[in-house]
């Protein structure tokens, strides 16, 4: 970079007049400033000045001929000095560099991209571009110079590291809420093709995945202020023509469909040895699940199911990279709770082609022949065990989920026709209603995994058996049929057998985050009726049978949602009050001795603003009384930039360990269970903190998760316990109300004769 600086000083280090608004009194220098020519001067910068004033006086003192507007200050890490961070740079005596202003640097960078005459120069230009393009001044000038057009052209033709740098530059530009609204379908398809290629390098796939994720999330309903506007109007949000919030799931999915093997390749990368690659792929899948549009939802989910995405995630649960992927996997679980709930609440329509095709497959695979009953009415679906021939009514409570479960139950068992024939060979009163039993199992599994409503998942552990819902359903339905036969049940015993199966399901599916699958199979296939019945009788002695009734289960589901929302508001209030945390060692540096040096400011106070858009914070060497409001908190993190809250990932600095324990610090530092990291799909970790106690950790990790548009997931057992406790307390109170309302008050009471002696009223007087 050409600085245009001239001056009489020719030594590597010299002194400059004081930059303090006019005073020439010699004072102790605060910083050193180095020019592009290698000239380094000591200078004292007055913190009351603006950056423009500092640069102007430096240019005057150093006799720079060019306009001061062409220059700016950066620190040794190339962070731009602004009015917001100038005082901090002065206070910590950071070494500064006098360099090209962002606008000037952007113009020169855009010119170099146009030339593209030397591969090495182009690569270095892109490497610099990916650092600076996050800055608004640089980005605005770069866009005005048509630099974005040249960057896109490079992405279409580059390979290897050059492509990786170009994609990373585009990824960083897209952190801004402007400047990339011109990205068209051809560009999106190019990124899809890059990701579809199994030969693409990992450092290419990471930014490409992040770009697609950003495009998926940039739908019109996500634009700032649109949610508030939507609540006061009926039409779609009206956005300016240059808004970047013009993409979304539908736009991206249209190009994904054209990319051969795109989803298959993304899902295969979940097994990548590179943890960051697996994490980016998981975050993209979660983003697609969270933003899937109604028109493409069924097609997208069907494609994911076809590619066995659930099995890929289950394998990931037990892999060696699990520590870094826990939060993303829990998000995936929460997303599939929403998928399952949507299927369960989607009503069956026999005229709907997709539903009709499944029904026809069920009938064909059953190998039954329709007939008429003794009254002359059609006898078809009742042969499978339904109560009526009205399938829309039969699947009313379980929807498409029940239909799919019955279909897969039949597909998994080649002997299903024999099962039906065996039931039909029995007297009508002794037949097990297989189809009705299938729907009942769907209901009890939905209750077991709390599939009550979208956005209300409180699971803090992995649920691999839930992700194998259809297989568990098949096992439990076979168990239902077996218990029906072993208990000699008749048509009036359906609820009794259902209670047996419900009891066994609780036992078989317990501790699913640590239990092997073969034990689940054993509990359903080998357990005898007598043992199940004996255990159930013991349970009935302890539990009120009223709690298993359908109206009570529905009431619990309603109270569960209300309790979740109550705890969510409480957690967000904790964020708005603010709290002190320890600045932790980042996850990727806990194994480096260089990373264990004592931070200059080990404490951080964070507070959520009333608009729920930013986390404001201040770093400090010591704790101090922070005033209400945001005046004491100069720095901030955008909540929308937080794509994941990872827990238990970072360690306390050694000096903090020494302050809190007599034991010497370990090396490498051990990750604290009270730590959490705010991760961005673009920048990695935005913050690494350690909470002072378990309650504060639960407040913040769950509060930040609950702030997310998709509801995220609950990280702590404490929060999950609060939701469950409030639900049970509310349920008991409601049942007390119901019990009181059902008491029959007698009428026509006879008072009887008055007491013979009333002196007892005054016996103590």
Automatic annotation (TrEMBL):
<feature type="region of interest" description="Disordered">
    <location>
        <begin position="1"/>
        <end position="23"/>
    </location>
</feature>
<keyword id="KW-0053">Apoptosis</keyword>
<dbReference type="InterPro" id="IPR024574">
    <property type="entry name" value="ELMO_ARM"/>
</dbReference>
<dbReference type="InterPro" id="IPR016024">
    <property type="entry name" value="ARM-type_fold"/>
</dbReference>
<keyword id="KW-0729">SH3-binding</keyword>
<dbReference type="GO" id="GO:0005886">
    <property type="term" value="C:plasma membrane"/>
</dbReference>
<dbReference type="Pfam" id="PF04727">
    <property type="entry name" value="ELMO_CED12"/>
</dbReference>
<protein>
    <submittedName>
        <fullName>ELMO/CED-12 family-domain-containing protein</fullName>
    </submittedName>
</protein>
<dbReference type="InterPro" id="IPR050868">
    <property type="entry name" value="ELMO_domain-containing"/>
</dbReference>
<dbReference type="GO" id="GO:0048870">
    <property type="term" value="P:cell motility"/>
</dbReference>
<comment type="function">
    <text>Involved in cytoskeletal rearrangements required for phagocytosis of apoptotic cells and cell motility. Acts in association with DOCK1 and CRK. Was initially proposed to be required in complex with DOCK1 to activate Rac Rho small GTPases. May enhance the guanine nucleotide exchange factor (GEF) activity of DOCK1.</text>
</comment>
<dbReference type="Pfam" id="PF11841">
    <property type="entry name" value="ELMO_ARM"/>
</dbReference>
<dbReference type="InterPro" id="IPR001849">
    <property type="entry name" value="PH_domain"/>
</dbReference>
<dbReference type="GO" id="GO:0017124">
    <property type="term" value="F:SH3 domain binding"/>
</dbReference>
<dbReference type="InterPro" id="IPR011993">
    <property type="entry name" value="PH-like_dom_sf"/>
</dbReference>
<dbReference type="InterPro" id="IPR006816">
    <property type="entry name" value="ELMO_dom"/>
</dbReference>
<dbReference type="InterPro" id="IPR011989">
    <property type="entry name" value="ARM-like"/>
</dbReference>
<feature type="domain" description="ELMO">
    <location>
        <begin position="354"/>
        <end position="509"/>
    </location>
</feature>
<keyword id="KW-0581">Phagocytosis</keyword>
<dbReference type="Pfam" id="PF16457">
    <property type="entry name" value="PH_12"/>
</dbReference>
<feature type="compositionally biased region" description="Polar residues">
    <location>
        <begin position="12"/>
        <end position="23"/>
    </location>
</feature>
<dbReference type="GO" id="GO:0006915">
    <property type="term" value="P:apoptotic process"/>
</dbReference>
<dbReference type="GO" id="GO:0007015">
    <property type="term" value="P:actin filament organization"/>
</dbReference>
């Amino acid at each position: 970079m050409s600085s245009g600086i001239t001056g009489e000083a020719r030594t590597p280090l010299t002194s400059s007049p004081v930059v303090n608004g006019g005073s020439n009194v010699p004072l102790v220098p605060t910083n050193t400033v180095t020019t592009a020519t290698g000239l380094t001067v000591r200078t004292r910068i007055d913190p009351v000045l603006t950056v423009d004033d500092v640069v102007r006086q430096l240019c005057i003192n150093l006799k720079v001929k060019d306009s001061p507007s062409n220059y700016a200050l950066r620190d040794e890490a190339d962070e731009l000095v602004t009015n917001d961070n100038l005082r901090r740079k002065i206070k910590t005596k950071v070494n500064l560099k006098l360099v090209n202003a962002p606008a000037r640097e952007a113009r020169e960078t855009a010119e170099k991209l146009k030339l593209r005459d030397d591969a090495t120069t182009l690569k270095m230009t892109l490497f610099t571009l990916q650092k600076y393009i996050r800055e608004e001044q640089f980005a605005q000038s770069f866009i005005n110079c048509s630099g974005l057009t040249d960057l896109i052209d490079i992405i279409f033709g580059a390979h290897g590291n050059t492509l990786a740098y170009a994609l990373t530059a585009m990824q960083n530009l897209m952190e801004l809420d402007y400047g990339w609204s011109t990205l068209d379908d051809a560009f999106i398809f190019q990124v899809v093709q890059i990701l579809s290629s199994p030969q693409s390098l990992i450092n290419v796939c990471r930014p490409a995945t992040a770009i697609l994720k950003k495009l998926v999330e940039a739908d019109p309903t996500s634009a700032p202020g649109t949610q508030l506007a939507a609540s006061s109007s009926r039409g779609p949000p009206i956005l300016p023509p240059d808004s970047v919030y013009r993409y979304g799931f539908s736009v991206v999915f249209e190009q994904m469909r054209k990319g051969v093997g795109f989803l298959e390749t993304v899902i295969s990368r979940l097994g990548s040895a590179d943890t960051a690659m697996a994490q980016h792929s998981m975050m993209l899948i979660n983003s697609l699940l969270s933003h899937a549009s109604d028109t493409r939802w069924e097609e997208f989910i069907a494609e994911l199911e076809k590619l066995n995405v659930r099995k890929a995630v289950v394998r990931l649960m037990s892999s060696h990279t699990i520590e870094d992927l826990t939060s993303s996997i829990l998000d995936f679980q929460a997303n599939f709770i929403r998928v399952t709930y949507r299927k369960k609440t989607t009503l069956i329509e026999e005229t709907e082609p997709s539903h009709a095709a499944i029904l026809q497959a069920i009938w064909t695979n059953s190998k039954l022949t329709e007939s008429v009953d003794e009254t002359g009415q059609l006898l078809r679906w009742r042969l499978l065990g339904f109560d009526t021939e009205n399938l829309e009514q039969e699947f009313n409570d379980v929807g498409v989920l029940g239909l799919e479960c019955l279909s897969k139950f039949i597909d998994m068992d080649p002997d299903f026709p024999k099962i039906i024939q065996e039931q039909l060979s029995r007297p009508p009163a002794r037949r097990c209603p297989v189809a009705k039993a299938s729907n009942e199992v769907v209901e009890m599994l939905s209750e077991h995994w709390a599939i009550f409503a979208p956005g209300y998942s409180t699971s803090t552990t992995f649920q691999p058996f839930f992700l194998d819902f259809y297989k568990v359903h098949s096992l439990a339905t076979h168990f239902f049929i077996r218990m029906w036969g072993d208990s000699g049940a008749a048509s009036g015993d359906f609820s009794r057998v259902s209670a047996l199966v419900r009891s066994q399901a609780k036992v078989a599916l317990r501790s699913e985050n640590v239990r092997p699958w073969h034990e689940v199979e054993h509990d359903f296939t080998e357990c005898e009726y007598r043992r199940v019945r004996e255990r159930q009788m013991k349970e009935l002695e302890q539990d009120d049978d009223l709690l298993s009734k359908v109206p009570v289960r529905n009431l619990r589901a309603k109270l569960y949602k209300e309790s979740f929302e109550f705890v969510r508001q409480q957690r967000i209030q904790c964020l708005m009050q603010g709290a002190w945390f320890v600045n932790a060692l980042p996850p990727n540096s806990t194994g480096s001795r260089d990373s264990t040096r004592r931070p200059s400011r080990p404490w951080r106070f964070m507070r959520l603003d009333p608009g729920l858009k930013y986390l404001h914070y201040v770093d400090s060497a010591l704790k101090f009384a922070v005033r209400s409001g945001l005046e004491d908190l100069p720095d901030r993190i955008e909540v929308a930039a937080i794509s994941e809250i990872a827990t238990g990932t970072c360690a306390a600095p050694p000096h903090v360990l020494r302050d809190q324990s007599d034991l010497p610090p370990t090396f490498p530092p051990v990750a604290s269970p009270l730590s959490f990291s705010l991760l961005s799909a673009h920048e990695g970790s935005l913050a690494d903190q350690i909470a002072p106690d378990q309650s504060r950790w639960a407040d913040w990790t769950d509060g930040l998760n609950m702030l997310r548009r998709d509801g995220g997931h609950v990280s702590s057992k404490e929060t999950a316990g609060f939701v469950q406790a409030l639900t049970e307390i509310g349920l008991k109170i409601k049942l007390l109300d119901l019990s009181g309302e059902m008491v029959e008050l007698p009428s026509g009471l006879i008072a009887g004769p008055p007491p013979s002696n009333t002196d007892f009223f005054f016996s103590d007087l």
